[in-house]
Write a structure and sequence with these properties.
By secondary structure, the protein is an alpha/beta fold. 33% of the residues lie in helices and 20% in strands. It starts with 11 loop residues before the first strand and ends with a strand. The structure holds inosinic acid and magnesium ion.
Length: 495
């Protein structure tokens, strides 16, 4: 991957996703880990999924910062206090890495990171089952309930793993608080979910939880992780003082932020640069610059929630709810880039781009690049963009980019604005009831119809692709720093 003048003189750089996640942060994080002395994750948990390829071997990481695979003993990798940590999941990930000869001597875990425990996973899955029509489409990893327990003053932290007696007392207290809340759910659902969790190990019929078993395992986890648990905020702040280079590794995407996203169809952390900096132990003043990873000229969303440019609309959203890569294989012939049916075109893009979730295997919903949404994200994440996955549309004859939204619902008030049907919005209103009733205004572009995967310099990019890059810059007042034309680090054009 080429060096870039954009990094000159910078010490703290954040990589965030300007869309709904999966825009391809991993590749840039992996590259910038070469540059950085310290890499920090600050938000999310095992809901995140990164596929990192090295030496033909693929690693699926959820919690461990993706730079760990560099295996460079001089670099430090940190799981910051804003992350919710499933200790069992982390240990499993570390064991897989060890089996491949990747060491993690320099992994540090914030003592203030809150734990995701079996009752969080149970609550997450129960709520989704009970919600049926209004479910969020979560990853089922217990993320929402774990974050809720932080503000609900019931959280158990990584630090508690270092103190077995405190740990046991807190787990007992938390379980006692959960039981009455769980009585309202379908007991058959509880039975099924608990049996499926860790082979039913933490299930005790009638009492729901086998608390003793949970505590025993957590103590074991504590022994395994204890050398890594420390005050990482202090580590990060000291690294900053000594002018080390710090990379903040984002998770999920701007519109999944519970503060800025398409609420309630969001995750439970703030996936913007602000949430990332805070969760890593820094403030926005400490961040020198931000790179907003942006899929173009298509984008994706996984799980439920509004997505105005979705190809195939509701049909696509229903389809993706239950489809996986294997279940789509029989449609490979019909799903082509020439298809007039946008649902099939969306499927063609999904197949070409391998758009299936790393964590859940679900088919990702596919739509056209939405500039009103992007403009909204850039208000917080800033002007620097990396446009990714562009090679996926190499064979696409017609490309559409959404330049505005037309609101089609009845009169609604949004802050100080009154929005009537027919109102045109240049910056998206990230309010589900509005976005659900927005239709995209499109500008059409001819496809470039040539392979871009070997492009390394600006002059290697087809003119028609370049027109789109310039159009995105003009329309967002942004600055495209990189165009990514393939999963490999070299398949990147610096601009
Ligand atoms: P949760 O984070 O599991 O609670 O899920 C909430 C929403 O965020 C769902 O729509 C998920 O599909 C979505 N989500 C969570 N993590 C990711 C991710 O890493 N990539 C894309 N979507 C995600
Ligand atoms: Mg991912």
């Amino acid at each position: 991957m080429p060096s870039h003048t954009w990094l000159d003189g910078k010490h703290v750089v954040g990589i965030v996703d300007n869309q709904f996640g999966d825009a391809g942060k991993g590749k840039f994080v992996n590259w910038l880990t070469d540059w950085a002395d310290v890499t920090v994750r600050g938000t999310g948990g095992a809901n995140a999924g990164h596929t990192v390829s090295i030496g033909g071997r693929k690693y699926f990481l959820h919690l461990v910062p993706s730079g760990i695979t560099h295996d460079d003993p001089s670099k430090v990798h940190i799981i910051g206090h804003g992350v919710v940590l499933d200790p069992k999941c982390l240990i499993d990930e570390l064991e897989l890495l060890r089996a491949d000869g990747v060491s993690w001597n320099n992994l540090r875990i914030s003592h203030r990171a809150s734990l995701v425990l079996p009752y969080h996973v149970l609550e997450d899955r129960l709520r989704e089952r009970a919600a049926s029509g209004s479910k969020i489409g979560t990853t089922g990893r217990g993320i929402g309930p774990a974050y809720q327990d932080i503000v609900g003053r019931l959280a158990i932290t990584a630090n508690d793993l270092l103190n077995p007696d405190i740990l046991a007392a807190k787990v007992r207290r938390a379980v006692a608080a959960k039981i009455p809340l769980l009585q309202g759910y379908d007991q058959v659902d509880i039975h099924e979910i608990m049996l499926g969790l860790n082979g039913g190990k933490y299930y005790r019929p009638g009492k729901i939880f086998n608390v003793d078993e949970m505590i025993t395992d957590l103590r074991l986890c504590g022994q395994q992780l204890s050398d890594m648990i420390c005050d990482t905020d202090l580590l990060v702040q000291e690294a900053m003082k000594s002018r080390q280079r710090i990379l903040l590794e984002g998770a999920q995407g701007f519109f999944l932020s519970y503060l800025y996203g398409t609420y309630p169809y969001v995750t439970s952390s703030d996936c913007s640069i602000q949430g990332l900096a805070a969760g890593a132990g820094l403030t926005m003043r400490d961040v020198d610059d931000v790179l907003g990873i942006t899929k173009a000229p298509y984008m994706t969303r996984v799980g439920r929630g509004p997505f105005p440019t979705e190809m195939g609309g509701q049909k696509s959203s229903d389809w993706c709810d239950t489809s996986t890569q294997t279940s789509e294989l029989p449609f490979a012939r019909k799903a082509t880039f020439e298809s007039d049916d946008e649902f099939m075109l969306g499927m063609a893009i999904r197949m070409k781009g391998g758009e299936y979730g790393t964590t859940t295997g679900r088919a990702r919903r596919v739509g056209w690049l939405d500039l009103p949404l992007l403009r909204r994200a850039m208000k917080v994440n800033g002007p620097n963009l990396a446009l990714t996955l562009m090679d996926v549309l190499d064979e696409c004859p017609v490309i559409r980019i959404c330049t505005a939204h037309t609101y089609t619902g009845s009169k609604i008030r949004w802050g100080g604005q009154v929005i009537d049907g027919g109102h045109v919005l240049n910056v998206a209103i990230p309010e589900t009831s509005v976005l659900e009733r927005c239709t995209p205004v499109y500008q059409e572009f001819p496809g470039w119809l040539s392979s871009t995967s070997d492009a390394r310099r600006q002059s290697d990019l087809p003119d028609k692709l370049w027109d789109i890059v310039r159009f995105v810059e003009e329309q967002t007042s942004g600055r495209v720093r990189f165009v990514s034309v393939g999963p490999d680090r070299d398949q990147t054009v610096s601009i």
